[in-house]
Automatic annotation (TrEMBL):
Residues 48-119 form the Mce/MlaD domain. It comes from Nocardia jiangxiensis. This is MlaD family protein. The keyword Disulfide bond does not apply. InterPro entries: Mce/MlaD (IPR003399), MlaD_Phospholipid_Transporter (IPR052336). Keywords: Signal. Residues 1-24 form the signal peptide. The keyword Signal applies. It comes from the Bacteria.
Length: 335
């Protein structure tokens, strides 16, 4: 029993000692002391980079250019207002002298690395070993708090709702799916017919080619037809023909030589035509009025000529129609 108790006591003491040693070891090891899984870049030379801020850039971080890992961060040190970053670059790597160094992260919580950006065409000069990229050619990463603030503003500032509203508006103006399907069906049929009639297209293109070849073969003849002497010949021919016709027909000749005297006459004819056009336009209405007058007034009077006297007044306004009726009856004019 005593031996078993001693063994248990020794085991507990050993475990406590291991825990203390492990704790001490953890407090003595820093993240920078851990070996890099990359295993370095092989033979390299050093370059200096100046940044206004490096945030959480660790030693051993990658140096990328054109999508390739060309080096790693070796050390960081504060020098006044800037941070000097020493990187090891693989030998044989040509870095343009006007390169721009940027500290980036692939994701919000991803690993930080240095990206070397340059133009599309590089013909030198290049940075020599031990060269330095000054702070005016570097860009520091944004503060994490600023990034989170921008993200929070994007989420809470209504941007997502605006995007949703925009998508709703786009969906409202876009045609209905069945219309798009019908349009796609028609287009597919047209393309199918076009693909089936490629022989006709080839024949048309061959015709264009043959026409162009024929015109090209007759280029000298066409140049002769449209040359300056030929154009002058046809112009003189037209002038001579018109001159002969003007001499044969004196009236045409007089108009041809001095037709300005016809301008007043033509203006008068135009005015007369305008008046005649007005009469022609009013003729249907006038004809209808004349026909109505003949039908309702002239014809009834011709069939039964009579005068219906309803009232006769003197200059003073006295009604004398009765006296006139008696007088006419006495004369036998009325019954």
């Amino acid at each position: 029993m005593k031996r078993s108790a001693r063994w248990k006591t020794g085991a507990v003491a050993t475990m406590l000692g291991c825990c203390v040693l492990a704790t001490c070891a953890c407090t003595a090891v820093r993240p920078d002391d851990l070996p890099s899984v990359r295993g370095g870049v092989g033979a390299s030379h050093q370059l200096g980079l100046q940044f206004a801020s490096t945030m959480n850039l660790p030693t051993g971080a990658d140096v990328m250019m054109d999508g390739l890992r060309v080096g790693e961060v070796e050390s960081l040190s504060v020098a006044g207002k800037f941070v000097d970053v020493t990187v090891g670059v693989k030998d044989g790597t040509k870095i343009p002298a006007d390169v721009h160094a940027v500290i980036r992260q692939n994701t919000l919580l991803g690993d930080t690395y240095i990206a070397l950006d340059h133009g599309t065409v590089v013909h030198g000069p290049y940075l020599p070993p031990g060269g330095t990229v000054t702070v005016d050619h570097t860009s520091s990463p944004p503060q994490l708090e600023d990034t989170m603030a921008v993200l929070a503003y994007f989420v809470n500032g209504g941007s997502i709702q605006k995007i949703e509203d925009s998508m709703t508006g786009i969906n409202a103006v876009m045609p209905k799916p069945r219309d798009v399907q019908r349009l796609a069906t028609v287009v597919a049929g047209d393309m199918r017919d076009l693909a089936g009639d490629t022989n006709e297209i080839d024949r048309m293109l061959n015709g264009f080619f043959a026409t162009g070849a024929a015109i090209d073969a007759k280029g000298q003849t066409l140049a002769t037809l449209f040359s300056q002497p030929t154009v002058h010949y046809w112009r003189r021919t037209a002038v001579n023909i018109v001159s002969y016709i003007s001499q044969i027909l004196p009236s045409v000749g007089s108009v041809y030589e001095g037709g300005l005297w016809m301008v007043p006459m033509l203006n008068s004819l135009a005015a007369t035509g305008a008046v005649g056009r007005g009469i022609w336009d009013d003729a249907p209405a006038d004809t209808a009025a004349l026909s109505d007058f003949l039908r309702t007034t002239v014809l009834p009077f011709a069939q039964n000529p009579s005068v219906d006297i309803r009232s006769i007044n003197t200059a003073e306004g006295d009604e004398i129609v009765g006296d006139v009726e008696n007088l006419m009856r006495m004369l036998g004019a009325v019954k």
